[in-house]
Amino acid sequence: MSYRNKTYIAFDGDNDMHYYRLMTAWKANDGFSLNFHNAHDLNTARDSSQEESIKRQLRERFANSKMLIVLIGENTRYLTKFVKWELEVALKLGLPIVGVNLNGSRKIDDKCPPTIKNELVIYVPFKHNIIEFALDNWPLEFSRLRNEGKSGDYFYNQHIYTRLGL
């Protein structure tokens, strides 16, 4: 079994690529301490025109992933070809999921993909500090809650945002 140390990021590649690129810029910038290993850097599909070829490569990325971030934009809930499949795989593998709301919401809202509604997911806005906090803290909290049989959406209280300067 491979060592899982990567963060898989699912998003609407047609509309939300700039948010994904901003996250990679945060990681690359020495002024930020955001630390994630991008599962998308592992490999690329040889034949990107074939859905099964792409999914085969994505399965390899999941094999090294310890958690999933889904960037939730205007159209994410409608994406059934890949994003829905990625979320289903993450749920099947029991990966902690962080829903990052691109509209700034701190909780689940109507933009949430149906696949993860009522699932054990933490929701945060697209802000560097709270995403980093979730990356550092949600996996352990997720494991504890899951072991207790909990489900449903979670969010951080105002105290956490205040502590992070948000």
Automatic annotation (TrEMBL):
Gene3D superfamilies: 3.40.50.11200
Domain Thoeris protein ThsB TIR-like stretches: 8-106
TM annotation in the entry: none
Domain of life: Bacteria
Coiled coil region boundaries: none
Pfam family, one: ThsB_TIR
InterPro entries: ThsB__TIR-like_domain (IPR015032), ThsB_TIR-like_sf (IPR036490)
Name by which UniProt lists this protein: Molecular chaperone Tir
Phylogenetic lineage: Bacteria, Pseudomonadati, Pseudomonadota, Betaproteobacteria, Burkholderiales
